[in-house]
Amino acid sequence: MGRYAFGVDVGGTNIECGIVRPEGTPIWRSRVRTEPRKGNEHVMALIAGQVREGLRETGIPAEDVLAVGVGMPGLVEPLRGVSIRSTNLFFRDYPVAAKLMELTGLPVYIENDVKLYVYGESCYGAGRGYRHVLGLTLGTGLAAALVNDGRLYNGSGCPGEIGHIPIDEIPYPCGCGLTGCLETAVSATGLVRQAVSALADGSGDHADSLLAKLYPDLGQLTAKDISDAYDQGDALAVAIMERSGRLLGRTLSYIVPMVSPDVILVGGGAAQAGDRLLGPAKETLYASIMPVYRENLAFVTGELGSDAGVLGSAKWAFDRSAGE
Amino acid sequence: MGRYAFGVDVGGTNIECGIVRPEGTPIWRSRVRTEPRKGNEHVMALIAGQVREGLRETGIPAEDVLAVGVGMPGLVEPLRGVSIRSTNLFFRDYPVAAKLMELTGLPVYIENDVKLYVYGESCYGAGRGYRHVLGLTLGTGLAAALVNDGRLYNGSGCPGEIGHIPIDEIPYPCGCGLTGCLETAVSATGLVRQAVSALADGSGDHADSLLAKLYPDLGQLTAKDISDAYDQGDALAVAIMERSGRLLGRTLSYIVPMVSPDVILVGGGAAQAGDRLLGPAKETLYASIMPVYRENLAFVTGELGSDAGVLGSAKWAFDRSAGE
Fold this sequence. Notes:
Two copies of one chain form a homodimer. By secondary structure, chain A is of the alpha/beta class. In chain A, 38% of the residues lie in helices and 22% in strands. The first copy, chain A, is globular and about 65 Å long. Chains A and B meet through strand 10, helix 7 and helix 9 of A and strand 10, helix 7 and helix 9 of B.
């Protein structure tokens, strides 16, 4: 019987990889640059290379590895092991599982990366001990996943794309074809978009903002800069964080009555904005849901960082190998 | 082995009861007035009486009945068999399952009535053949339930209360303590509320509406009257239906990206407004979701009527008896 699983989290920037024990302990970890522009085959070879390296460095024989779990961004078909579409990675109807099985000789199971991130945090991180976890990844984009009684929620194809809920108050067109999608304002890129839009509106209202002074050409502005300006009391930065928090809280108030979670768990890079953004989000959410939801609803941030996706992917590999 | 289950759907007006075979065929049906003001014990006695009557009329021996499934309005705790709260029935922390077991000598399993309605339609009605069903009951209020791969979705306590999502555009205070809850406008009572509010606004804008002429005192107005006025081209009735449909469609566009259903199934009394309300709802929904959701999303109305809750409750009894 295999005693280990590989967990692989494939992002647009890095591939995170680990060998994990059934109880969620990573005994080996690695990170390599994805360089997705070098093509799908290159990304597959990188993952297979990490699997070989992990086995060599730990001395674990391949027959002690049950399977490889892989979290892929975008739309995936877990049963067929196919990546249907992944904006950052240029995969399209690509047989990830089959290809990696060929390269590694191990069973491979894939799922959406947001689901496996939330699964990791639910099983081993900030969601531990909660029965119904609504997890969000707030990074370049915004998405969510549900874990109920330890099981990943599966709808038809792609549950959790809450970044593509259109909100009246948001004016920006979205790459998906809709207008006003939540993630066009509430995400790392969305925060920047709001700042650029406010600074460029021609009224000069924000000419004295730290953000205007930091980056006269605005091309270099990051979400981190907005957090920093917020900490120095910059009015524009404060307004952007509070507005974004309110929009997120309002959107969560649309979802909570439907899914009735015990905890909302927020992770991802832009979650580092912390209470600057999540404070107003929580306040708006709690004011907009019935007591029956409010009273037992915790609100936490992820605690596993880049391990979350690796552990979630490995858990997925264990589950699927056991026929779950 | 028991070959039958009782399905009981307890409403504020009627109690629907049936003896059902495992494949979902009702072989006996009854309906009695609930008269909830006569008290909890009275309601329990009514249900037990129907169980006895069903056995007597069909000649089925009690040992051939596996269990009784009961759909209760409001907040229930299925595991303990307790009705926590039910606005129309005045139950509060009442041990429905224990009491009915005492009265009937049969195992009793309870669940929320909306969930069991949607479960019935999913297993035997308009949701048959769809893997992920988002079902709505549009009646006096508005609520929803999810069935995924044949399993009722369970969150923490009370998933599906989408009637209590607060919507900016809706001005009415709700009994739950929030303002602008969807069901204060989109439900049988909500449609009437909108009409009364428009007719009473003092501007006289709608003085020539059929609705004003029908009921000068407005106290008798029903959702059916608004449908009838709509069919005669009444501008106010048309505006109310279209606005309500848009609000419903918009709210569904908040939920669909999270739960990713294959079908939206609408039942309940107010669903009889049909395309007058569901037409604009569908149109707004489809315009506000990504193609990946839109392309495979069916939109149907319930087809089992009052049998849906009975069949869903009986199925729940079969499931629970089998340890599911």
